[in-house]
Specification:
The chain is mostly beta strands. The chain has one domain: Beta Complex (Metal Binding Protein, Guanine Nucleotide Exchange Factor, Chain A). The protein is 0% helix and 47% strand. It is built from no helices and 15 strands. The strands form four sheets. Strands 2-5-6-10-9-8-7 form a seven-stranded antiparallel beta sheet, with no helix packed on it. The radius of gyration is 15 Å and the shape is globular. The termini are close together. InterPro entries: DUF427, DUF427_sf.
Amino acid sequence: MRHPSPDPVGPGQESVWDFPRPPRAEQVDARVTIDFGGERIVDTADVVRVLETSHPPTYYLPMDAFAPGALRPAAGTSFCEFKGAARYFDVVAGDAVAPRAAWTYPDPTPGFEVLDGRVAVYPRPMDRCTVDGEIVQPQPGGFYGGWVTSAVAGPFKGMPGSMGW
């Protein structure tokens, strides 16, 4: 699927095909919760999302919104051509550990300074992530960290055949 056709956009939805490239970071009026290991590890209304063409939004939350001990520094780094060098965390709650399930940009590039001190979480290994009470579905594939809700229309990068998008 080299050039996908955008899915129809319903009332109150945004198409990921209208999101920009390079991506944009923006503060949003939303409440995000994350449950892991049977515990609520985040409940915050201080939310920034990153929007990029073909991707559902990735949500960045303040580090201090996480329960004490929920983020444990993990080995390894990666690099985003837009946001800079990322550092990873294991997510921990009780006996549950999700290795490298969260990341931050400790020195974000110009234009993404709003991400400083914020953490994004892959929704797949969590018990539950919500945006304004709606349970999030993980972005398809295992690489990307977007959060799919009924507020966005795809198709989404990460599904089979989307490598060249």
